[in-house]
Amino acid sequence: MENILKQLPQKAKESEAENKKFFAKLKKKPTKHLDSLMQELHEEEFQRTDCLKCANCCKTTGPLFTDKDIERISKHFRMKPKQFIETYLRIDEDNDYVLQSVPCSFLGADNYCSIYDVRPKACREFPHTDRKKFQQISNLTMKNVAICPAAFNIVEEMKRRVNSK
Question: Which domain of life is it from (predicted)?
Fold first, then answer.
């Protein structure tokens, strides 16, 4: 897994232009049944991929925390939301709550999340490859292929299947 993670940013950079073109084409004319194809590719990939062996998303990026996330997680810690924010979060350039630092404060040495059952929505949905109208989040996907080997594989397989039609 370490080798894959070392190579991933370079592989993502090499496929960036091709991915931009592909997503631009999808935005203009989404392939019929794209949502069901994405769901299928997502499920296939995550039968092969074990996030606990990777956890690169938790090690290199931080999720966005919604107000609901903050309420739920602070309740879990028996803290006031304000105290949770002061302890773990900061406001970023987009005026969103994010972690003060990465790797994630809640990531254990074993790659397990200590707040898994109450984790932020952004974590639950990462890498967002099973979303409906997937083509609308192409900018996010372009970032995620450089972080998540599963997202990279899903996009590569999607390009193969869509372009072969």
Answer: Bacteria
